[in-house]
Specification:
about 425 residues; alpha+beta; Creatine Amidinohydrolase, Chain A, domain 1; Creatine Amidinohydrolase; six-stranded mixed sheet; binds glycine; binds manganese (II) ion
């Protein structure tokens, strides 16, 4: 485990919150993710299952959590199954959790080896009516392989066709958007690591450096601080800054270019998601500065507009109204174009030519974190705010992105100490 230990109270409390949503005679089973293969005998670095981590703090492959609050035997009401290690596993793969360690991390008293799972599962299926299984229900997920979750649901439903099956995702999407103080502290640490990386990069960037080198500077800072990249970093100079998901990161940064950095660190599986756009030569041109300040104004406006009780879709609309106003001021669109576009298709307002993506998303154990569609913002949500203006004809785009905690008494910018004003950026780069 690369990160400092997390108090098991976080995971105990998360399981309590889940239990409170379950009907009588429920059985919840949560699996670790498969390790995705690459080519030949290669595999990717295991990615912890976010729901399993949320409920146990365990990231180890093949682990299974079982919650069965009404089980006849008290000892069956909460169990964690982990891989039993042996000499062979130790030699080839290294260290695995012992039972006392799994207990300590998760706060679960009953830890079993995986080999005991089939017998205990059979027993609990016989006692339960409602079975809650996991599925990826992120609206933008695009999955072409059968995941462990999908395979487990298929096999379980085939073996036990008469149970009443439910979507665990529906409950997790209700719980996970609301972050506890411990979770916010972990996201703050991810933001702090991101800030260190950005600071280092601002001192490093000058005409002639390659995007690869900039990525390496972030990696150096993130990894030595026990973090990692939260997602493939976007290090996009010049025209590349108009490519929303650019990640070739291999072009030389030229004098006069802007460099868009959409980079975040992850710490203890919690993510930061930052975007800053900086001038390669250390100083914005007047045109770059005007566009930059418009984006910054929309960022500030949208941050203030994040309020408990508001629907994400209404916030999106507000952000579009703010952006429209800026684009009109910049004369990138005209009132006539606005009117005509709205008449032709209200879903394609004129501003979308320059700002074509969403203004923000929930952030947490997943970078695009889960939340129930149609659920209003509430205290404890962490949202990104990330407006942008993209100008392919002028060879640059600007995006800025902060991570914002919503509370009952106003918002907290978790990236409030990462420089963003033109003056701050220019001063930082001068160093
Ligand atoms: N870096 C991914 C995003 O901003 O949503
Ligand atoms: Mn981002
Ligand atoms: Mn984002």
């Amino acid at each position: 485990m690369r990160h400092a230990p997390i108090p098991s109270s976080l995971f105990i409390e998360n399981r309590n919150r889940l239990r409170a949503l379950l009907p009588e005679k429920s059985l919840v089973i949560v699996n670790a993710n498969d390790i995705p293969p690459t080519n030949a005998d290669g595999s990717m670095i295991p990615v912890p299952n976010s729901d399993l981590f949320y409920l146990t703090g365990v990231a180890q492959e093949e682990s299974i959590l079982v919650i069965c609050p009404d089980a006849h035997e008290e000892k069956h009401r909460e169990m964690l199954f982990v891989r039993e290690t042996n000499e062979q596993v130790t030699v080839w793969e290294g260290y695995k959790l012992t039972k006392p360690e799994a207990q300590q991390v998760s706060g679960i008293r009953r830890i079993h080896w995986l080999s005991e799972f089939p017998v205990l599962m059979r027993r609990l299926m016989c006692e339960s009516d409602h079975v809650f299984l996991n599925s990826n229900e992120h609206a933008r997920a695009d999955i072409h392989v059968e995941t462990k979750d999908a395979r487990f649901a298929r096999e379980t439903m085939a073996a036990w066709p008469l149970h009443s099956y439910h979507r665990l995702a529906r409950l997790m999407h209700e719980l996970r958007p609301v972050k506890s103080a411990e979770e916010v502290a972990l996201i703050k640490e991810a933001c702090a690591i991101t800030r260190e990386g950005f600071d280092r990069v601002c001192k490093f960037v000058k005409p002639g450096v390659n995007e690869t080198e900039v990525e390496a500077e972030f990696a150096h800072e993130f990894i030595r601080r026990r973090g990692r990249f939260a997602y493939n970093p976007i290090i996009a100079s010049g025209a590349n800054s108009n490519v929303l998901h650019y990640n070739d990161n291999c072009r030389p940064c030229k004098k006069g270019d802007l460099l868009l950095l959409d980079v975040g660190a992850a710490y203890a599986n919690y993510n930061a998601d930052m975007t800053r756009t900086i001038p390669v030569s250390g100083k914005f041109t007047p045109r770059q500065r005007d566009i930059y300040n418009s984006v910054l104004k929309v960022l500030r406006g949208c941050t203030d507009a994040l309020k408990p009780g508001k629907l994400p879709k209404d916030w999106q609309k507000e952000s579009e109204a703010m952006m429209e106003e800026e684009l009109l001021k910049l004369k990138l669109i005209t009132p006539k174009e606005v009117k005509e576009a709205n008449k032709a298709d209200p879903d394609k307002p004129a501003l979308k030519k320059y700002f074509m993506h969403g203004v923000g998303h929930p952030l947490g154990l997943d970078v695009h974190d889960v939340a129930t569609i149609g659920m209003p913002f509430g205290p404890g949500w962490v949202m990104t705010v990330e407006p942008g203006i993209y100008l392919p004809k002028e060879g640059f785009g600007v995006r800025l992105e902060d991570d914002i905690l919503i509370t009952a008494n106003g918002n907290v910018n978790l990236m409030g100490d990462i420089p963003i004003e033109v003056k701050e950026i220019e001063a930082l780069m001068k160093r």
